[in-house]
Specification:
Length: 88
Amino acid sequence: MEIMNIKNKSEYIRRMAIYGYMLQLDLDALQKPLKLMGNISNNINQIATRVNSTGNFYKEDLEELQGSCRQLKNDIVPVILELSKKGV
């Protein structure tokens, strides 16, 4: 119960009755991909703002986004595979 941050037996029973199970996940491996996703979304917003104001879209912007998306895929696929092995 301590690992799940549950303070007493009543809370444990209540959660089990409602959810049927509890998971304690270590999501440290997702920190880098989540940060990269935030960077990608910021870049998209900046590009959209510029395109809306100037009408210009640059090939370099697209290439940078594609590279970031590839990096995100490379970072997140191993995490997904590991989670699928554990049956999560």
